[in-house]
Amino acid sequence: MQQILVVDDELEHLNALCELLQGGGYQVLRTSRPERALAIAESQRPDLVITDWDMPGLSGIELIRQLKAHPATRDIPVIMCTGSMTTAAHLETALQAGAVDYVRKPVEPIELRARTRSMLQLAASYRQILAKEQELARQNELLNQQKQELHQAAITDRLTGLHNRAYLVDQLSREFSNSRRYGRPLSCLLLDIDHFKSVNDRHGHLVGDAVLRHTAQLLSRGLRRGDVLARYGGEEFVLLLPGTPAASAQALAESLRASVAQAVWVQGELSLPLTISIGVADNLAGQAEDETALLRHADAALYAAKRQGRNRVVVHAEPVG
């Protein structure tokens, strides 16, 4: 049943309005104290408010303004009911305050019911539209969230949580282009877990997967904003360092190598010491003509590190034996 709040300090008129509305099949809330009307409207959320204009303490105009200023009641339509509204100026004042319609005293029952029915229909239509808009906004938010999740999944390595190879290739191309455009160095580190095949062969792929996650976490620590760490494939990782020359990249690589060597992987009774080998290449020092060449230089340096005994860092610009 639709609910109407009637506010009028004149009890005789208040009772007459309520009887007319109840006769029309509406549930009626009433108060002769306008200062209580806002609290009633907030708690009961009526479908319509009908208020007198001239009331002591709080006028109907001020009541409407308060209703429209409150988030919980601002969408409730209000009909002004008064004998004072005899001019266009009065009507304009009421409408500017937020009233949607008016009736004059003494009230004509047919007019009151017609205007009430019309306002309630409009209010119901508005609520339906608002509900649809809210549902549409919720669906759009959910869709955006799903798109973001799909995008994140598309660029993330599921095992380690790092960026995947597809993301790396895209970022490498972008960073190399920026580096060439602005004349800034770009270093590329290619990192490989030493003797990883023996870990899988001796302890199984589940242990191997745990070692990969462990190593990824160690490599992720202390990276700067803008650095790009990705799993390249298997037990190999790539770290891009925009704006970083080979000397600084070598220092970071040594720090990463030491952190892995010092952090023994432990699971239950199984304890595995791990080491990594790292190849470092700088696009400027190594004179890489494109991003593929930069990655190839890093790979050559990594291969040299493996040949020289593993658990070490080799920079491509250095002579490698």
UniProtKB/TrEMBL annotation:
One of its GO terms (biological process) is phosphorelay signal transduction system. Residues 3-120 form the Response regulatory domain. Transmembrane segments: none annotated. Residues 184-318 form the GGDEF domain. GO terms for cellular component: plasma membrane. Keywords: Coiled coil, Phosphoprotein. It catalyses: 2 GTP = 3',3'-c-di-GMP + 2 diphosphate. Residues 126-156 form a coiled coil. Its EC number is 2.7.7.65. The modification 4-aspartylphosphate is found at residue 52. One of its GO terms (molecular function) is diguanylate cyclase activity. The keyword Coiled coil applies. Gene3D superfamilies: 3.30.70.270, 3.40.50.2300. It comes from the Bacteria. It holds the Pfam family GGDEF. PANTHER family: DIGUANYLATE CYCLASE DGCM-RELATED, REGULATORY COMPONENTS OF SENSORY TRANSDUCTION SYSTEM. NCBIfam families: GGDEF (TIGR00254). This is diguanylate cyclase. It comes from Inhella proteolytica. The lineage of its organism: Bacteria, Pseudomonadati, Pseudomonadota, Betaproteobacteria, Burkholderiales.
